[in-house]
Amino acid sequence: MPTVDPQPGDAARPTSLSQRVVDGVTARIRSGELTPGSKVPPEPALMREYGVSRSVVREAVSRLQANGLVHTRHGVGSFVLATQAENPLAAQAQADLKVRQKLAMLELRMSLEADAAALAAQRRTPEQLAAMEAALADFDRQHSIGEGTAEADFRFHELLAQATGNEYFVLVLRSLSGATIPRSAGRPQRRPTAPRPARFGEPSPQLRSNKDITAQEHRAVLDAVRRGDPALARAAMYMHLTNSRDRMQAAGGS
């Protein structure tokens, strides 16, 4: 998933580009040009049409998926959903939500995903663990080069939900994440004047940005899931989303 961080001016570029793709594809869906069940243009076509990188297109597709507009079949492509207007949670996620509404969505995710993490710790397969590890590696790589991390962030949370073996965790997560997923690299954080050892779920003093903090929190969740420890996985995810809520409040809900 996913967290929300304050946005610096120099990190806005990936967000504005991906939003342009989202707006363009959404308009084509709303106008009927892309009908339910039809295939969204593939990544190379969208890259050429909008003059953006592959990572920007993937972030845009992730948002479209989170908004309940498309469904992606790995290795096949993304397809327009027939029921996007019938899903009130997806419609809510698409709206320009107020801070209170976004925080309410995060509260729901805190309960939902904490339990999902506990179930994933009991049910995950080696292949699912490898996929989650790959998502975190992509998150780190994209952050290190200043690219948007939303696609990798959402993919990690979605893969964890899939590891529960309960499709409804995935469906609800997709409906909610559009409004609360991270949008770009976070701004540097001020270091404490009196460093001390970090407690569970607390960022170490050396972390430089909200994205570094998010990466550490994701890693704590994955480590607990890999160990097969439901209680630890639940606590790690709850702490991650609690911190995400606090970061959202500090950023004014942006």
TrEMBL record:
InterPro entries for this protein: GntR_C, TF_FadR/GntR_C, Tscrpt_reg_HTH_GntR, WH-like_DNA-bd_sf, WH_DNA-bd_sf
Region annotation (Disordered) ranges: 181-213
Pfam families: FCD, GntR
Protein name: GntR family transcriptional regulator
Domain HTH gntR-type as annotated: residue spans: 15-83
Keywords, ordered alphabetically: DNA-binding, Transcription, Transcription regulation
SUPFAM superfamilies on file: GntR ligand-binding domain-like, Winged helix' DNA-binding domain
Keyword presence, Transcription: yes
Molecular-function annotations in GO: DNA binding; DNA-binding transcription factor activity
Organism: Pseudaquabacterium pictum
